[in-house]
Design brief:
alpha/beta; 12 helices; binds phosphoric acid mono(formamide)ester; binds norvaline
Length: 303
């Protein structure tokens, strides 16, 4: 890792650093609740680039910076010169002269790498087609607030082996929990991330059997069947129908299992109302913790 403290993917971190970030997130959450937050980001500016839509990521980063005395500039590709072909590399060089950190949500992870290569300030991954690490930091934080250490626990994923699933795979290795992924064969996570997890000693299985994945699990996860930018929506919905998280599937998990979803949800598709609004669901805490987890990430990046 370069001297600049980028937050790109969880596999690039050691466990202690990720733990330190979560500890910081917890401290900042408590300080905010107690009304004793300090303006640790005073004089700092985060630039956020969105090449895809966002509600949670955009608002939680903006509010998080503001609550701690910092400022943000938000831009989309459509309203910046990126949308007219200015390169990511040149954009990185320019923004580094103005800002203290850059967050990007984009499609191709190569753009994130270009930003990392050419920025001289920290770059934060706000989601690519490959991964969504800020989300999983909030998810691990949420699990541990409700159930204690995630190490040794069983986490199930039922659905598309997508960007969020990839960050769960990274997290399983780094935080030491079992991850059982159930997905159609055509929608498995990329072989590269599974090979990495296997070589790193991860306890991760991938099958087409949702019931087997959820059996006795401490946490069950769902995500949209059609991610931003995905083609063939109808074919995906058909393929993923057996992976819907409904009450019958949840009944196979532990009696006190949690249900999470990064949101936005498509109720009646990947999850039923009875589950997402039911007693296992912690989705609002999960969404709130984006704010706190990202304060921890920003504190680490900005030193
Ligand atoms: N979970 C998540 O990243 O939500 P947004 O797309 O609204 O940012
Ligand atoms: N997998 C989803 C996550 C949204 C936060 C997507 O990429 O659209």
């Amino acid at each position: 890792m370069s001297a600049v403290k980028h937050f790109l993917d969880l596999d690039r971190f050691d466990t202690k650093t990720l733990r330190d970030i979560l500890d910081m997130a917890g401290s900042l959450k408590r300080a905010h609740a107690d009304g004793v937050s300090k303006p640790i980001f005073a004089g700092k500016t985060l630039v956020m680039i969105f090449e895809k839509p966002s509600t949670r990521t955009r608002v939680s980063f903006q509010v998080g910076m503001q609550q701690l005395g910092g400022q943000v500039v938000v831009m989309s590709d459509a309203e910046s010169q990126l949308g007219r072909g200015e390169t990511v590399a040149d954009t990185a060089r320019v923004l580094s002269r103005y800002a203290d950190a850059i967050m990007i949500r984009t499609d191709d992870p190569k753009k994130l790498q270009d930003l990392e290569t050419h920025a001289t300030v920290p770059v934060i991954n706000g989601l690519t087609d490959y991964s969504h690490p800020c989300q999983i930091m909030a998810d691990v934080m949420t699990f541990e607030e409700h159930r204690g250490p995630i190490e040794g626990k069983v986490v199930a994923w039922s659905g598309d082996g997508n960007n969020v699933a990839t960050s769960w795979i990274h997290a399983a290795v780094r935080f030491g929990f079992t991850l059982r992924i159930a997905c159609p064969d055509a929608l498995r996570p990329t072989p590269g991330v599974l090979d990495w997890a296997a070589s790193a000693g991860g306890d991760i299985t991938v099958s087409e059997d949702a019931a087997a994945a959820v059996d006795g699990a401490d946490l069950v996860n769902a995500d949209t069947w059609v991610s931003m930018g995905d083609a063939n929506a109808d074919a995906r919905r058909k393929l993923l129908q057996p992976y819907q998280v409904n009450q019958a599937l949840m009944a196979g998990a532990k009696a006190d299992a949690l249900f999470m979803h990064c949101l936005p949800a498509h109720r009646g598709e990947e999850v039923t109302d009875a589950v997402i609004d039911g007693p296992h669901s912690v989705i609002w805490d999960e969404a709130e913790n984006r704010l706190h987890a990202q304060k921890g990430i920003l504190a680490w990046c900005l030193g």
